[in-house]
Amino acid sequence: MSDCLFCKIIAGEIPSKKVYEDEKVYAFEDIKPAAPTHVLIIPKRHFAGLDKAGPEDAEIIGYCNLIAAKLGRERNIEDGYRTVLNVGPRSGQSVFHLHLHLVGGRDLSWPPG
Ligand code: AMP
Ligand code: ZN
After folding, report:
1. Could you give the C-alpha distances from 84 to 13, 39, 40, 103, in angstroms and in order?
2. Which atom of ligand 1 is nearest the CA belonging to 84?
């Protein structure tokens, strides 16, 4: 999508700190980290969010979580991290290209705010 911030990041039109890439996903450091590890994992194929996902998106949503687990392992934060999909304006979703937050490296309170 031409006017999508995260599609532009994938295309290299907007700079990002890449931490992982393969044919299906791109992962980069969040510009405003909420924790020592705060990485966004995004499908290369644009879709707006979990609320817009269909059965054809099940594999990529699962795959994003597996990449989060791999990065969590590599960063030694397996004693506590969280993967988060914000959905809709009341959740704080501000970018409408599905992105999985990987947050960790500090104590995480529950319930989230
Ligand atoms: P959400 O609030 O779930 O839509 O998450 C969007 C996230 O994207 C926020 O945590 C922002 O800090 C992050 N973000 C926005 N613009 C950029 C950017 N140019 N590079 C990296 N992260 C960004
Ligand atoms: Zn996009």
Report:
1. 26, 11, 10, 8
2. 3
Query: Which protein residue's CA is at the shortest distance from atom 15 of ligand 1?
Result: 31
Whether the model pTM is above 0.85? yes
What does residue 89 show for φ and ψ, rounded to 5 degrees? Answer: -60, -35
Structure tokens at 84: 């988060």
39-51: average pLDDT: 97
Give the ligand with the smallest distance to the CA of 2: 2
Residue 92 and residue 95: Cα distance in Å, rounded? 9
Would you say domain 5-104 falls under CATH 3.30.2130.10? no
Give the model confidence (pLDDT) of 47-106 as tens digits: 999 999 999 999 999 999 999 999 999 999 999 999 999 999 999 999 999 999 999 999
CA diameter of the chain = 39
Choose among 61, 59, 56: nearest CA to 87: 61
